[in-house]
Write a structure and sequence with these properties.
It is found in: Endomembrane system. This protein folds into three domains: 140 residues, no CATH class; 51 residues; 49 residues, no CATH class. The chain is 78% helix and 0% strand. It contains twelve helices and no strands. Helix 5 packs antiparallel against helix 6, helix 5 runs parallel beside helix 7 and helix 9 runs antiparallel to helix 10. The chain is globular and about 60 Å long.
Amino acid sequence: MSQNSNSEYVTNEVATITSSETGTKSNESSGITSGMQEVRDVNGVDLEKAKDEDVKAEMTKTQVILVFVGLCFGMFLAALDQTIVATVVPKIAFDFKDLDRIAWIGTSYLLTVSAFQPTYGKLSDIFGRKITFLMAILIFEIGSLLCGLSNSMTMIIISRAVAGVGGGGAITIIVSLLFLHLHQSTGSFREKLVRIDWLGTVMIAVSTVLILLALNWGGNEYAWNSALIIILLIIGMIGFILFGFVESHFALEPLAPIRLFKYHTVTVNLLVNIFHGMAFFSIVYFIPLFYQVVDGDNATNSGLKLLPFIL
């Protein structure tokens, strides 16, 4: 009887252990399956389904060529508008009898381009590249139309600024379309509006405008040590610092993730672009002015003399 009891006891223990192991494996299997389901359904999107949709969305060779050509034309127009008025700036200033604000014809466009480029990058992520690109082109064309209808220096400066709002967006979105493989955005229009970093958008736009105003006015309309220039520079720099703080601590979808600046390649490229822009646009806008005012050339001849530099 004792041996039988021990045998039954061992049998029950083995059954218990086996049952426990089976339950554990079942739970692990269930957990793995659940985890896989969570991965597939991350952010409410079935990744396998999204992959299938990407395959279905592949375009024909003809469509790719047409889209590429269209994007190239858009890039050409936006880039051309940065310097297209360089050779006719003196003529415009003489016709409007306003030489004091001659620099603002080019500055107004570049100012809004710089201020709105980061915003367009995030808007294209939220609303999609196509609709954002078309909106940017529409604003750019409206600004260009207003430039053609301008009858005063004030109107042409404002019109150039409007064109810059669209031109900056066109360049940003075209670059992302050509070099990045991005999925279509999802969610309702209300949900997309909530995702916009409104505070960051206002802060970076205002800070950029203040800095550029100080750099443009300094040494021209005001002395570098004047109170206005110093205040603009200080407020602009404080705005950039606060922008970085907001982006790193409060923004759910930041315009410029601070982690990007940890990479030396990104930081160095930004600095190179800043100094390149300072040198390039100074030459492009003021060399034609020298040719026309000092040498007496017309707009066509000054443009031809500048052509080797552009090429």
